Task: inverse folding
C-alpha cells in the first residue's frame, strides 16, 4: 500500500505535542477560500510554476513531450491542459521555477522515515502527525503506518477537516492517540459559501468522535469576514461546550502567505486583499471562547 | 557609593575610551620605555623571564593609574601595551629565523602560530591564596621561575597599594594583605588579575567555573548581612559590564562557565545577564542529566530573549572524552572551556588550542589539481593522503612554534597560579602545566564533504561531466558553467541531511583525522588534539585562499563555519542535521566541536517552544553531541535590520566563538545569516 503525499516536515512543533514529523497527504474534499496550501487540494499530482524564478533557459520546452511549455516574446507560458504531470520539466529546472506536488510513499518507507527522529519524540513527548490535505481520505494508509508506529511506542496524531465518512475515522481510531480537528463555522450556509461544502458531516463526526475517549484539539482558522463576528464565535463556543474530550481550542490566525501559490498552480486567488487579524482581535476572541469553559491557545 | 547601575550604564560601557590617567609622579610612556631599554642594556645576559618580570613590576609601580570613584572596582593602568608589543617583536624576529626555509603557514592550506590566546589561570588558587599568598608561595621556592613569580606578584601588591593611596578602600587594604574574604573582594581579584595577565601578554579565555568559585563567598556575605541579593546584582553588573566595555562586542568575549551542579549564584548571574542583555561576557553552561530543570529553563529563556552568546555543552560526554585523552577522572570533572568550545582541565592545562589550523576544503582543490583519477575511491584515497601530508607539515611547524614560546613570551603571572609550574619550577611556556596539549583546528568540513560528494556523483556516477570539464569549470570560477554549478548545488545530496550517501564521506574524513591527529606528540611533552569547527576568521582567511569548489562555492568566499551543513543546505530540517552530525564520533575531536542551530522565533514561542529547545538539546546530547549554540531569528527581521540598522542596535548574533551585534557584521557575513534564517 502507498500513500500520496505533498511534503514531509521534520521538527514540526505546531502539529500536536512535542517535536513531531508531519506528513502532509494530498487531496482534500473542501475548498476553503483562505487555504494556504492550495497544492494540497487536488488528489492528483500537479506541476507548479513560479514565474519569478524562471531564468528562461528553455530546457523545459525541449524536454516536454506534450509541448505544454512555450515561450512567447520571452514570456514563459505553461499550458496546463496539455500537462500529463510526467515531471520531466521539473527535473531539469535547476532554478526551481517548476515544482512537483505529489509523491507516492510506501508504508515501510514512511515508517522508517518517521523512526529516524524517534529520540526527538522520546525527549519531547512528540511523535508523528498526518495532516494534509485531508489525511483521512487515505485512512487505510494512515492506519497501516500508525499500527507500525504504535508498536514502537510513537505518539500518533491525525489533523483532519472532519469532512469524510465516519468509517474513515473508524479505520484509524484504534491507532490514533489524538485528533486535531478543524472547525470553521457551525452555520451551514456560511460554511457552504466559504468552504465549498456542508458542515453537517463535520459536526456529526465531531460529536461521534468526542464520545470515543480520545483527546481532541479543536483548531479554528480565524478568517476576517467569515467567522470573526460575535455570533459566529459564540455559536462555535456553544457547540464545543457540549462535547467531551476537547482538550484545547487552538485559534489559527489567518495569514496571506499562501497567496502566491494559487498563481503557481494557475488558480484564481480566492482571498485577494484580506489582511491578517490583529493580535488584539485574537485575544478578544480567545476571551469570548473562554467563557464556554474552553482552554484556548492562539 | 556608586550609583545605580542602570543610571550610569552608558558611561560604564565607555570606561576604557579616553581614560583619564592621573598625571602625578608616575611615568609617561617615554620614561617607561627609557627605563626598560636601560635595564636590558645593563643586563644583557639576564634570563628573559626575569627581564619580563622586571618590566611587569616596573609597570605596576610606575605606570599611570586611573580610578573611577563611582566604580566598585579598580583596574586601570596605563601600560601602553608595552609587553604585548615586545612579545610581538620577539615573535616576529624569532619566526623569521626559525621559519626561513619552511614557512609556518601555507596560505589556504594550514597555519600555525605561537598561541598565547588560549589560557586560563588557576582561579581556585587565586581566590584561595590571593596575590599575597601566591607571592609568598613563590618566595618560599628557589629558581628562576620562583624569582620571576615573586617579582610580578610584588608588582601587583604594589599596584593595589597605589590604588588605595589615591582612593582608600577596605577591599584594597585587605587584598594587599591576604586572600579575598568577601564576594566583592573576590570579583576585584578576578578582574584585576584578568587585566594584568593580558598586560603580561596572554589572553584569558575562561573566567572559570563562576558559580562554583564564588558561591561560598556570596552566601557567606548574605549570611553575615554584609550584602543583599540586590547589592550582589549591582556588583555583578559593574563587573560584567567591564568585559563588554573592553571589547565593545568586536573581539572575542570572555567566557564564564556555569553548572553542571548549580547553586544560588548560577541563578543570580543568569538573572543579571538577561537583565543586562549584553554581548560580552559570554556564558557557557555544563549540562548533565542531573542539572536542575529550572536552571535549564532559565538558560533557554535567556537564549530566547536574545542572549545568544550562550554555549551549552554535554557535561558527561565531555568528561568521558577528557578521560579517554589522558586526564584523571578527578581532573576531567573539573573541566572548563577555554576559548570557544575547547574543554581543558581548570587551572592545570595549557591547551594551545588555537595554535594550528588546517583547511579540509583546500585539500580537495589540491587533490584535483594534482592528478586525474579513474574512480572515486582512488580520488578519496588521494584526498586522505593529502590530509596526512598537510597535518605532518602542520605538526612540525606547530612544534617549532611551541619551542619558540619560552623565548618570546614566558608567563610568570600565569605560571604563578599553577601548582604544577611552581612544583617543577617550569613556566607554562616550558610545559610546566600538568597537561600540555596542542589543538589542530580542522576547518571547512561541510565544503570538503559536499565537494567530494559532488565529484562522486557528477563525475563518476551520473557522468554529468568529466573530471577535466569540472576542473575547467572550477578554474573559471564557474563562470560560463552556471548550469553545472546549479546541478552541483541542487541535485547532489548535502552534508547535514541525514543522507548516508554523503554522510559516509564525512565519516571517512573524521575517522582519519581522529586517528591521525590525536596522540601525535607535541613539543611540550603533551599531544595534539583534533577540533572540528571553524570560527569566522578561520573560515574567511582560509576561504580567501581557496579556489572555486565542486560544491558550487565560488573562489575566495568564506568557508562554512563550524561542524554543521553549509548555510541553507540542511533542507531536511533540524532533526536531520543533528542525525547527520552525530554520526561522527565527536569524541574524536577533544579540542572541540559545535553545532550551530538557527531557529525561527515562531518555532520556539511560549512554554512549548522552550520545551522544544530543551528537547533538542537533550536529544543532541543523548546522541553524543558535545556543544550547541543557538540563533533564533526571522529572516524578515534580519533583512529589515540590514535596511534599518538604527532600529536594531541591540540585535546580537552568535558568529562562532563570540557574539556580535548584527550591525557590526560585514554585508557578506550578514548575508550568510539571512540565508541560514531563510531556511528555518
Result:
Amino acid at each position: 500500500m502507498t500513500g500520496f503525499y505533498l511534503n514531509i516536515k521534520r521538527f514540526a512543533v505546531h502539529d500536536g505535542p512535542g517535536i513531531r514529523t508531519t506528513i502532509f497527504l494530498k487531496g482534500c474534499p473542501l475548498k476553503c477560500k483562505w487555504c494556504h496550501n492550495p497544492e494540497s487540494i487536488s488528489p492528483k499530482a500537479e506541476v507548479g510554476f513560479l514565474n519569478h524564478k524562471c531564468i528562461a533557459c528553455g530546457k523545459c520546452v525541449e524536454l516536454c513531450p506534450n509541448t505544454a511549455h512555450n515561450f512567447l516574446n520571452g514570456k514563459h507560458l505553461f499550458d496546463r491542459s496539455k500537462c500529463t504531470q510526467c515531471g520531466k520539466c521539473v527535473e531539469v529546472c535547476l532554478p526551481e521555477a517548476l515544482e512537483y506536488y505529489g509523491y507516492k510513499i510506501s508504508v515501510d518507507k514512511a515508517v522508517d522515515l518517521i523512526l529516524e527522529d524517534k529520540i526527538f519524540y522520546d525527549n519531547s513527548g512528540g511523535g508523528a502527525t498526518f495532516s494534509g490535505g485531508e489525511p483521512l481520505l487515505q485512512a487505510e494508509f494512515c492506519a497501516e503506518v500508525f499500527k507500525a508506529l504504535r508498536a514502537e511506542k510513537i505518539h500518533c496524531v491525525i489533523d483532519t477537516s472532519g469532512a469524510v465518512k465516519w468509517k474513515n475515522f473508524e479505520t484509524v481510531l484504534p491507532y490514533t492517540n489524538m485528533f486535531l480537528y478543524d472547525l470553521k463555522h457551525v452555520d451551514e450556509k456560511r460554511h457552504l459559501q466559504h468552504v465549498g461544502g456542508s458542515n453537517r458531516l463535520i459536526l456529526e463526526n465531531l460529536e461521534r468522535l468526542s464520545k470515543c475517549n480520545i483527546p481532541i484539539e479543536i483548531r479554528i482558522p480565524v478568517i476576517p469576514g467569515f467567522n470573526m463576528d460575535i455570533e459566529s464565535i459564540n455559536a462555535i463556543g456553544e457547540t464545543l461546550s457540549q462535547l467531551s474530550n476537547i482538550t484545547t481550542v487552538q485559534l489559527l490566525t489567518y495569514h496571506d502567505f499562501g497567496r502566491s501559490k494559487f498563481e503557481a498552480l494557475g488558480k484564481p486567488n480566492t482571498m485577494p486583499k484580506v489582511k491578517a487579524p490583529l493580535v488584539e482581535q485574537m485575544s478578544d476572541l480567545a476571551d469570548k471562547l473562554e467563557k464556554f469553559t474552553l482552554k484556548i491557545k492562539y | 557609593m556608586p550609583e545605580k547601575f542602570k543610571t550610569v550604564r552608558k558611561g560604564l560601557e565607555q570606561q576604557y575610551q579616553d581614560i583619564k590617567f592621573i598625571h602625578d609622579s608616575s611615568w609617561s610612556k617615554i620614561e617607561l620605555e627609557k627605563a626598560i631599554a636601560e635595564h636590558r642594556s645593563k643586563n644583557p645576559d639576564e634570563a628573559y623571564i626575569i627581564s619580563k618580570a622586571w618590566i611587569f613590576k616596573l609597570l605596576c609601580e610606575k605606570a599611570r593609574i586611573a580610578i573611577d570613584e563611582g566604580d566598585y572596582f579598580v583596574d586601570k593602568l596605563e601600560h601602553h601595551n608595552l609587553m604585548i608589543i615586545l612579545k610581538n617583536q620577539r615573535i616576529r624576529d624569532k619566526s623569521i629565523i626559525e621559519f626561513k626555509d619552511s614557512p609556518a603557514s601555507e596560505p589556504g592550506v594550514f597555519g600555525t602560530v605561537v598561541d598565547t590566546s588560549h589560557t586560563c589561570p588557576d582561579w581556585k588558587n587565586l581566590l584561595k591564596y590571593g596575590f599575597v599568598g601566591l607571592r609568598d608561595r613563590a618566595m618560599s621556592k628557589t629558581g628562576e621561575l620562583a624569582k620571576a613569580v615573586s617579582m610580578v606578584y610584588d608588582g601587583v601588591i604594589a599596584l593595589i597599594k597605589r590604588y588605595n593611596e589615591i582612593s582608600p578602600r577596605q577591599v584594597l587594604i585587605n587584598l594587599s594583605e591576604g586572600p579575598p574574604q568577601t564576594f566583592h573582594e573576590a570579583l576585584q581579584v578576578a578582574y584585576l588579575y584578568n587585566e594584568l595577565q593580558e598586560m603580561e601578554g596572554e589572553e584569558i579565555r575562561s573566567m572559570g567555573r563562576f558559580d562554583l568559585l564564588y558561591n561560598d563567598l556570596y552566601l557567606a556575605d548574605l549570611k553575615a548581612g554584609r550584602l543583599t541579593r540586590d547589592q550582589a546584582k549591582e556588583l555583578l553588573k559593574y563587573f560584567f559590564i567591564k568585559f563588554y566595555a573592553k571589547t565593545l562586542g568586536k573581539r572575542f568575549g570572555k567566557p564564564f562557565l556555569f553548572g553542571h551542579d548549580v547553586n544560588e549564584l548560577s541563578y543570580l548571574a543568569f538573572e543579571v545577564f538577561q537583565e543586562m542583555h549584553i554581548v560580552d561576557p559570554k556564558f557557557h553552561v555544563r549540562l548533565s542529566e542531573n542539572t536542575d530543570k529550572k536552571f535549564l529553563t532559565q538558560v533557554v529563556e535567556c537564549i530566547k530573549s536574545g542572549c545568544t552568546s550562550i554555549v551549552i555543552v554535554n557535561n558527561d560526554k565531555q568528561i568521558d572524552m577528557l578521560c579517554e585523552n589522558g586526564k584523571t577522572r578527578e581532573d576531567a570533572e573539573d573541566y572548563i572551556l577555554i576559548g570557544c568550545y575547547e574543554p581543558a582541565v581548570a587551572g592545570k592545562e595549557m591547551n594551545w588550542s588555537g595554535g594550528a589550523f588546517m583547511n579540509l576544503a583546500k585539500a580537495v582543490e589540491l587533490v584535483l589539481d594534482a592528478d586525474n583519477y579513474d574512480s572515486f575511491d582512488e580520488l578519496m584515497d588521494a584526498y586522505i593522503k593529502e590530509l596526512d601530508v598537510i597535518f605532518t607539515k602542520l605538526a612540525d611547524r606547530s612544534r617549532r612554534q611551541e619551542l619558540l614560546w619560552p623565548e618570546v613570551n614566558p608567563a610568570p603571572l600565569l605560571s604563578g597560579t599553577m601548582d604544577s609550574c611552581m612544583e617543577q619550577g617550569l613556566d607554562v611556556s616550558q610545559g610546566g602545566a600538568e597537561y600540555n596539549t596542542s589543538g589542530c583546528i580542522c576547518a571547512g568540513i561541510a565544503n570538503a564533504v559536499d565537494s567530494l560528494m559532488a565529484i562522486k556523483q557528477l563525475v563518476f556516477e551520473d557522468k554529468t561531466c568529466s573530471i577535466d570539464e569540472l576542473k575547467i569549470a572550477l578554474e573559471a570560477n564557474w563562470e560560463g558553467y552556471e548550469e553545472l554549478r546549479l546541478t552541483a548545488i541542487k541535485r547532489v545530496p548535502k552534508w547535514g541531511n541525514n543522507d548516508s550517501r554523503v554522510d559516509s564521506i564525512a565519516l571517512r574524513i573524521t575517522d582519519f583525522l581522529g586517528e591521525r591527529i590525536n596522540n601525535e606528540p607535541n613539543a611540550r611533552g603533551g599531544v595534539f588534539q583534533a577540533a572540528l569547527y571553524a570560527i569566522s576568521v578561520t573560515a574567511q582567511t582560509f576561504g580567501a585562499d581557496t579556489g572555486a569548489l565542486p560544491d558550487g562555492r565560488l573562489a575566495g568566499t568564506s568557508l562554512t563555519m563550524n561542524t554543521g551543513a553549509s548555510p541553507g543546505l540542511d533542507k531536511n530540517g533540524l532533526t536531520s542535521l543533528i542525525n547527520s552530525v552525530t554520526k561522527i564520533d565527536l569524541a574524536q575531536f577533544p579540542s572541540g566541536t559545535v553545532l550551530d542551530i538557527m531557529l525561527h522565533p515562531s518555532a520556539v514561542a511560549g512554554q512549548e517552544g522552550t520545551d522544544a529547545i530543551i528537547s533538542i538539546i537533550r536529544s543532541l546530547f543523548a546522541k553524543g553531541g558535545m556543544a550547541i549554540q543557538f540563533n533564533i531569528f526571522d529572516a524578515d527581521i534580519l533583512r529589515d535590520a540590514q535596511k534599518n540598522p538604527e532600529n536594531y542596535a541591540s540585535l546580537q548574533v552568535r558568529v562562532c566563538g563570540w557574539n556580535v551585534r548584527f550591525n557590526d557584521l560585514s554585508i557578506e557575513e550578514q548575508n550568510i545569516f539571512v540565508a541560514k534564517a531563510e531556511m528555518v
Chain A has a mean pLDDT of 93. Chain A is about 30% helix and 25% strand. The CA atoms of residues 211 and 290 of chain A lie 22 Å apart. The radius of gyration of chain A is 20 Å.
